[in-house]
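2024-03-11 09:14:02 INFO worker-7 job=invfold-0412 stage=load source=structure_tokens
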């Protein structure tokens, strides 16, 4: 929130487990890893921190610039983030090994790892969607909205049956 912190509670009894402190701006992105071992927090200025939940301690941090979104891989301790410069970042946690996927020169506004765990779908402010190969780091497809329906994308959702929906100024459904 605006206090530059995030909080982790146990939902079964409402007990506050710990505070995620040390951010430089309002915390706008939070999420647990697939197995709840880690929680990631990110602020508006692009300062991302990862905390080991059981130990209640920060284990990793990185600064990327203006942060748009974060997303954990559904099967591995891998964190992805999109930034206002159009890049999508991917880190192995806790080692911090990093790959960067360079998008168009506009904000990467939303992202979602496909259920196969091998690709990420990233939506951009220019209304395009790029599907990236996580291992190779290359763009597999660039999808554009229908003419006359262009605008920034605000949400990407992917399901196990290989359908993805994009929401924003562009509306279409893809099958992958």
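2024-03-11 09:14:09 INFO worker-7 stage=emit residues=176
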């Amino acid at each position: 929130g605006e206090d530059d912190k995030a909080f982790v509670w146990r939902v079964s009894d409402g007990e506050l487990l710990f505070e995620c402190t040390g951010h430089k701006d309002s915390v706008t992105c939070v999420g647990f890893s697939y197995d709840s071992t880690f929680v990631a927090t990110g602020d508006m200025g692009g300062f991302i921190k990862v905390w080991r939940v059981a130990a209640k301690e920060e284990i990793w941090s990185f600064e990327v610039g203006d942060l748009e979104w974060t997303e954990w891989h559904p099967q591995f301790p891998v964190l992805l983030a999109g930034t206002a410069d159009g890049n999508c970042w991917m880190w192995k946690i806790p080692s911090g090994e990093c790959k960067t996927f360079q998008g168009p020169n506009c904000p990467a506004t939303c992202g979602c790892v496909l259920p196969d765990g091998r690709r990420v779908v990233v939506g951009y402010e220019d209304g395009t969607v790029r599907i990236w190969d996580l291992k190779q780091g290359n763009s597999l497809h660039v999808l554009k909205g229908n003419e006359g329906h262009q605008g920034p994308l605000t949400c990407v959702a992917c399901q196990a049956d290989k359908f993805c929906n994009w929401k924003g100024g562009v509306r279409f459904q893809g099958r992958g």
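2024-03-11 09:14:09 INFO worker-7 stage=report msg="The chain has one domain: 6-174."
2024-03-11 09:14:10 INFO worker-7 job finished
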